[in-house]
Amino acid sequence: MTADFWFDPACPWAWVTSRWMKQVEAVRPVRVRWNVMSLAVLNEDRLDELPERYRQGMREARGPVRVCVAVAAEHGQEALDRLYTELGNRRHGEGRALDRDTLREALKAADLPVELADEAESTDRDEEVRASHGRGIGLVGRDVGTPVIAVPGPDGEPVAFFGPVVTPMPRGEAAGRLWDGVLLVAGTPGFYELKRSRTERPRID
After folding, report:
1. SUPFAM superfamilies under this entry (predicted)?
2. pLDDT tens by residue, 111-120
């Protein structure tokens, strides 16, 4: 099974879920295909409603997304996977900003041209960002964030969902059991939501 996974590299919850998916790949017959979405695009129509700190975060989030789209277009899926891992380790593991220095360092560690960091300040990839973002959001609707996951449903049509939002992430067979449950509920016609209040910050133990 191929699971399409849409992420914004700035989102800590998407990062935890992505590492869970790495665990799932090891214990279930599933492979992840990485796709980019943009929290900045998702929230652009309601920026005036958001606190200034969050608005600033949305502005800063555009650059890393552009770089990820450029890497996917020019170097393919495996390269995007490597870059997302390097960006996530630095942003969510070490608490660093996704600024130009971090982008260049992550690109180098992913064995990619560091010049791709220049894409962060360019609008040339913005239509590609919107197209990738639109494919994911088009499957689940705008009332969600990142991550979005889509898999083939029982009838072959995509079944997509936001999340799962989980911390700390399950590992090994526990990760597989969560995947089994997510697929079960997501594939149930008419099923829309399970939710409870979050009491922890995203973390990987």
Report:
1. Thioredoxin-like
2. 999 999 999 9
